[in-house]
Amino acid sequence: MGSAFSVGHGFSHGFELSDQKKRVVGCMGDSTFFHTGINSLTEVAYNGSNTICVILDNRITGMTGHQENPGTGYNIKGEPATLIDIETVVKALGIKNVRTVNPLDLKVMKETLDWAYAIEDEPSVIITKWPCVLKKFSKEDKEEFDLDMTPCAVDTEVCIGCKKCLSTGCPALRFDNEAKKSGISETDCVGCTVCMQVCPVHAIYKKGDK
Ligand code: SF4
Ligand code: SF4
User: Fold this and answer.
1) Considering the entire predicted model, what is its pTM?
2) CB burial class (10 A; 0-12, 13-18, 19+) of residue 107?
């Protein structure tokens, strides 16, 4: 609950003092950032470490039941409220290296992590911004994000049974051990396309595209 960045900061300094040249990545959600993560990031900025701080901004409070938070633009009663922009807060704390990215785009995510790892003497912050698929989307969510939840499917003629898609950990994916092919539960899939991006033979497609 907010300590990921300050604990990461401590570990970063610990590694600096040892001969282990390791980098530390700390992660927390958007509501946790507002809860106590701001203090934690202040520690990283003020006392200086090269910690990579990742704020998982899913536009809602995921852990405790989808309450609004200062970043959603609504108060606890669901009434419009001041929206506190995370990137603006992070920059106000003096962090110079900040990027906000779509976490569903794996190429961009990898490039962004590579960018952060390359910054060896300063802290960096990555804000991964995409609404939780379980939330009731606000009108702002619908305006800002392309929320196409058309499910995906596997073309079993093309699938080579490599199981790379299963490595995403998505519960909508199935593997038929007899046929040695993957499959997707249409009712569970939210069409995020992450499995499509890892399939080496392009066997996965959005329903309606074939
Ligand atoms: S598109 Fe997303 S939700 Fe659907 S099966 Fe693939 S990883 Fe899971
Ligand atoms: S990654 Fe593609 S080829 Fe490999 S099992 Fe999944 S759908 Fe089949």
Assistant:
1) 0.94
2) exposed
